[in-house]
Each structure stands twice: as structure tokens, then as C-alpha cells.
Specification:
The complex is a heterodimer.
Chain A: H1 11-21, H2 26-36, H3 38-60, H4 93-129, H5 131-145, H6 149-160, H7 164-191, H8 194-201, H9 206-242, H10 254-263, H11 270-297
Helix pairs in contact in A: 2-11, 3-4, 3-11, 4-5, 4-7, 4-9, 4-10, 5-7, 6-7, 7-9, 8-9, 9-10, 9-11, 10-11
Chain B: H1 2-29, H2 43-52, H3 59-71, H4 86-121, H5 126-140, H6 143-157, H7 171-201, H8 204-211, H9 216-228, H10 230-244, H11 248-253, H12 260-268, H13 272-300
Helix pairs in contact in B: 1-13, 4-5, 4-7, 4-13, 5-7, 6-7, 7-9, 7-10, 8-9, 10-13, 12-13
The chains are: A mainly alpha, B mainly alpha.
Chain lengths: 302, 307
């Protein structure tokens, strides 16, 4: 890119420019900026490691997450072959930590996907159609927004009994509201942009405009919001666990481990500290990636 | 302005009506009843109790009666707390949550905005990194971890603050709960302010203000800050509603007589009328605070036209 003659008419320069300029669209630029952001790269590396541990971790520990060992109660870390110690029932903390990581990441991924699919479709439809349809769809969002989250969760639980799938659904059902609002706002502002008008003038039909112009331009803000929703979901699940409404024992999530550890804080501080560190590492990684992504896609507010 | 207010109210009232309707029927669709105790009531007694609360009539009739009562400001009797109406429950417990929530929001806004402005003015210097670090830690540590930790340090180890309890809202009893409530909000608010401020400081109107030779102090407070807190205003609406209806976690850990814990207990016990009362309080708060946020936004941003 360095030695291009930009003088119009100089044949060599024009030819060079064509090859050099090609392929540096919005996404290439964004990728380049993201790769240069040290916090985001570190976050991604830590997160990749955590995901690996969540997948293979449970097989690396000689104990099961729900295995009760009557002789190994309240062990401090590094004692008796329990690398991170054990809890009141002698369950190995490392095994439970890996399982908790797996459950929390899964809840984050599934609930966010639910909110992503529902929210993008809902928001883009409302924004693009506009008029009465938009009004009705967004009023529905307003109504759901005005109902307290915990009310939903408890009603779902007493109706269908408490299980993990339900927690996925309940959290996803609340998170899609914000997603729909963001997507609708973006769609509204995109709809009247010049390049959409140009596409319309060029004779593209509505589906092609949505698929080729609206959705790719939505992806930026949506991707940023997704990386910030996942930690939000993990945090929401941990609050449910604290209230006894989250995953039920012996199953573990990072939230339920922390909630349990907080109760035995004075007797066995490692039960609080270890899962807290894992939780903070997970959430901070997601936050770094999200911030990095936002700066990369929208570099103006750095 | 007046037209905007009227239009918004015209929309808000049906929204509230739909919220009440949805909540009413959702709750009744869930299995269980407020009169299911550990000890099973004989059918005749249960029928009598249901009759007393009008629950023997068709659901539609009950719904219409309930709506009629709400219109007259009558939220009905609690089904679980004997001889108490829903209004009694709200009156006894709401002031506690309100006081904690308001204090926390006030402190969080003042501290969050100051920290955010400071970080933006010293972008990429030590003060900035410190603020960003605090902000990230603040949003990632759940309050049910900070609360017991603070109890352990200030209540148990140092012994300078009460571990729990309300004591009619004595100042020492408020410090820890307010700190736990405010910390995540300080984190979010300082982050929003910092981002908005950095953008505003690079804007054309700030350059114009500089060119006019205004003192830096005035540029920051009058010109930049005004635009920088716009995203904060729309965040604060729903956030306030959440804080003002009481925090389940904080009220439970510090054993405070607030409204938050009724959300869970009453819903689990199917205390229909109390749950409905809380849903209505929450929905009204959300609607009113969002309206206030929009009004404030229009005052701060001359580009926003209320129509």
C-alpha cells in the first residue's frame, strides 16, 4: 500500500490501486484492530482455555463432581489428592469447578442464542415493517419489560418444575427484549441510509436488501451486545442459584458454587475464593472481548 | 411537551392494564394455591376460606373484581399475612427499600459520574486505568459475594459496623447495604460516563467552545458533560426501577425488612394479591422512570424533539 501513485491516468498506479485496495472492507479493518487490542486478545485466550477446561476438565480429575467422600470432608487445597480442597460432603472442588464452568458457559451460550434469534428477528421485523406492526410488536416488548424477572422465573418453576433447560429458557426469555430494542433501533436508522436507497434504486428487492445490506450492518452492534449478554446471563443464573432457584444440587454452576461458598466463608474460605476467581476470569474475558469488538467495529469512541 | 406527555400517558395506561392482566392470569395458571399448607385443610374449611376471599367464583369474575378494586386504590387483603391488606404490607416495607435504593442511586450517580469524567480527562493515564479496572471488577463480582465479604471485614473482624439488621434505619446499619447496592452501579455509571465524555471531548461543539476561549472548567461541565450523560440518562430509568423495588439479595443477607424479599416468598406461597401489588408497583415505576428519562433526555439534547 505504501508506494502507490494516486495520480489519475497513470496506468500502472491505477492497476496497483485496484489490487491493493481490494479486500479491505469494514470487517478486515475490524479484525486488524481487534488483533492489535491486547486486552481483547488476552481475554480471548483466557476464554478459549476456560472453554477447553469446561469440555475436557471433568475427565481429567479422578473424582466425579457429585462423588461424596465421607473421609475427605473440609479439606484445604493441596491435601489428600484434592488439588483445590473439598466441601462439607467431601466432594472434590476441582471436579465441581469444572462442572460448574461447563454448566455456566452452557447457560450463557444457550440463553444468549435464544435471545439472539428471537431478538434479531423480532427487532428487525418491527423496525423494517414500521407503522402499526412496529407499534404493536414494541408494545409487547414494553409489557414484558415491565414484569419483574423473578416473577417469570418463579412461575415457570412452579409450573414446570425446576430443571436446567427451564433456566436457559427463562433467562433467554428476558434477555431477548433488550436485543430486540437494539436491533430495531439499528434497523430504523439503517433503513433511511443512502446506500439502502441506492440499493433500492438499483432494483434490488426487499429480501435482498435485508439479507445483503441490513443484516451485515446489524451484525456489529449485535456481536458487541452478545459478548456483553453472555456474562450478564451467567451473572443472572448465579443470582438465581443464590436464591435457591438456579441449578439444583448436586449439579453445580459457578453461581451455585459461590453461593454455597459464601455460606461457609469463615470455615472454608477456598470454597468461596476459588469459584469466585473462575467467575471473575470468565466475566472479565467476555467484557474485554466485548469492549475490544466495540472499539474495532466503531473506532470513533476510543 | 404537553402533547408528548399526554401521548405517553395514553400509551402507558393500556400498557399497565395489559401488564396487570398478563400477570393475573399467568399466576392463576400456575399450579398450587395460597391455602396449600403442610397440613392439608379439610375440603369444607378450604371451601370456606376460598369463599371468604371470593376465590370460589369464576376466574373472569375475580379478575373484574380485582381490576375494579385496583381502580379504587384497593389492592385487596393479603392471603397469607392475616389481617393485613396489601397496602399495609407495602406501607410497612416499602419505605425501607425506597430509602436504601434512593441513597444507593444518589451515591452511585455522584461517584460514578465524577470517576467517569476524571477517567476521560486523564485518558490512558493511571487514574483512567484505575477507574476502568474498578469498573470491570465492580460489574463482575456478584453482590452476594461482596455482601458477606464486607460483613466479614467490617462487621466481624473490625467490628466497626453492625453485621446485619435495620434498627429503624440508623446510619451505621445503612452503610454496608448501600455500599453493596451502589458498587455495581458506580462501575456501570463510570463506564458509561467515561465513554460518553471521551466522545464529547472530541466533538465539534467542544472545539467551538474552546475556540471561543471559554475556561476549561466551563467547557467540561457545561458543554461536554451535558452530552456525555445522555446514554446514562436512558440507563438510569430502568436501573432505578430495579433498585427502588428492593434488592432480594441485599435484603436477605443483611436481614432488612424491605420489599424485595416479598417478591420471592409471596410468589412461592401464591400470595396472589401481594404479588400483584408488587408487580403493579414495579410496572408503574418502570413506566414513570422511563418517561422521566425521556423528558430529561429532551431537556439535555436539543436535537431530540418530543412529539
Amino acid at each position: 500500500m505504501t508506494q502507490i501513485s494516486l495520480v489519475p491516468g497513470s496506468g500502472r498506479g491505477a492497476a496497483l490501486m485496484e489490487t491493493a485496495v481490494k479486500g479491505r472492507g469494514l470487517w478486515d479493518d475490524a479484525r486488524r484492530r481487534l488483533a492489535r487490542n491486547r486486552a481483547a486478545v488476552t481475554g480471548a485466550a483466557v476464554l478459549a482455555m476456560l472453554v477447553m477446561l469446561a469440555i475436557v476438565g471433568p475427565w481429567l480429575v479422578p473424582y466425579r463432581y457429585d462423588e461424596i467422600n465421607k473421609d475427605d470432608v473440609w479439606l484445604a487445597p493441596l491435601v489428600h489428592g484434592h488439588l483445590l480442597g473439598s466441601d462439607a460432603l467431601g466432594r472434590d472442588l476441582l471436579a465441581r469447578l469444572f462442572m460448574g464452568l461447563r454448566v455456566s458457559l452452557a447457560i450463557g451460550a444457550v440463553a444468549t442464542s435464544v435471545s439472539l434469534v428471537v431478538g434479531v428477528i423480532w427487532g428487525a421485523t418491527a423496525g423494517y415493517l414500521g407503522g402499526a406492526m412496529d407499534e404493536v410488536m414494541m408494545r409487547i416488548v414494553d409489557v414484558l419489560y415491565s414484569l419483574p424477572f423473578i416473577f417469570f422465573v418463579i412461575l415457570l418453576m412452579v409450573t414446570f418444575g425446576s430443571n436446567i433447560i427451564l433456566i436457559f429458557v427463562a433467562i433467554g426469555a428476558v434477555e431477548w427484549l433488550t436485543m430486540a430494542r437494539i436491533v430495531r433501533g439499528q434497523t430504523l436508522s439503517l433503513k433511511n441510509k443512502e446506500f439502502i436507497e441506492a440499493a433500492r434504486a438499483a432494483g434490488l428487492d426487499r429480501t435482498a436488501i435485508i439479507a445483503r445490506h441490513i443484516i451485515p450492518n446489524l451484525l456489529g452492534p449485535v456481536a458487541v451486545y452478545v459478548t456483553l449478554t453472555i456474562p450478564g446471563v451467567i451473572l443472572a443464573e448465579s443470582f438465581l442459584s443464590f436464591l435457591g432457584l438456579g441449578v439444583q444440587p448436586p449439579m453445580a454452576s459457578l453461581g451455585s458454587l459461590i453461593a454455597g461458598g459464601a455460606q461457609d466463608m469463615e470455615l472454608a474460605p477456598w470454597l468461596l475464593i476459588v469459584p469466585s476467581i473462575a467467575m471473575i476470569a470468565t466475566l472479565v474475558s467476555f467484557n474485554f472481548i466485548g469492549d475490544g469488538l466495540r472499539d474495532a467495529i466503531d473506532p470513533k469512541d476510543r | 411537551m404537553l402533547r408528548f406527555l399526554v401521548r405517553r400517558l395514553v400509551v402507558a395506561i393500556p400498557t399497565l392494564f395489559v401488564v396487570i392482566t398478563v400477570a393475573f392470569f399467568m399466576m392463576r395458571a400456575a399450579p398450587g394455591s395460597p391455602f396449600d399448607n403442610d397440613r392439608r385443610l379439610p375440603p369444607e374449611i378450604k371451601a370456606n376460606v376460598e369463599k371468604k376471599f371470593g376465590m370460589n367464583r369464576p376466574l373472569g369474575v375475580q379478575y373484574v373484581n380485582y381490576l375494579g378494586g385496583v381502580l379504587h386504590g384497593d389492592f385487596g387483603p393479603s392471603l397469607k399475612y392475616q389481617d393485613k391488606t396489601v397496602l399495609d404490607v407495602l406501607r410497612e416495607n416499602y419505605p425501607v427499600s425506597l430509602r436504601l435504593g434512593l441513597t444507593a442511586i444518589l451515591i452511585a450517580t455522584v461517584m460514578g459520574v465524577s470517576l467517569g469524567v476524571l477517567a476521560a480527562l486523564r485518558q490512558n493515564q493511571a487514574a483512567d486505568y484505575l477507574t476502568v479496572g474498578v469498573a470491570i471488577v465492580g460489574v463482575t463480582i456478584p453482590s452476594f459475594v461482596t455482601a458477606p465479604l464486607l460483613q466479614l471485614v467490617f462487621g466481624s473482624k473490625l467490628g466497626i459496623l453492625p453485621i446485619a439488621g435495620w434498627d429503624n434505619g440508623a446510619l451505621p446499619n445503612m452503610i454496608l447495604p448501600v455500599a453493596v447496592l451502589a458498587l455495581p452501579q458506580i462501575a456501570i455509571i463510570s463506564r458509561l460516563t467515561r465513554a460518553g465524555m471521551i466522545e464529547a471531548l472530541h466533538s465539534n461543539w467542544v472545539r467551538t467552545a474552546r475556540a471561543k476561549g471559554l475556561p476549561e472548567r466551563q467547557i467540561v461541565t457545561r458543554h461536554a458533560l451535558r452530552a456525555a450523560i445522555l446514554p446514562l440518562v436512558s440507563y438510569l430509568g430502568p436501573a432505578c426501577a430495579g433498585l427502588l423495588t428492593g434488592s432480594l439479595v441485599v435484603e436477605r443477607i443483611f436481614n432488612l425488612p424491605g420489599l424485595g424479599k416479598f417478591f420471592v416468598v409471596s410468589a412461592l406461597q401464591r400470595d396472589y394479591t401481594v404479588v400483584m401489588g408488587m408487580v403493579i408497583v414495579y410496572a408503574v415505576l418502570i413506566l414513570v422512570l422511563n418517561l422521566l428519562a425521556d423528558l430529561l433526555q429532551a431537556r439535555l439534547d436539543p436535537r431530540v424533539r418530543l412529539a
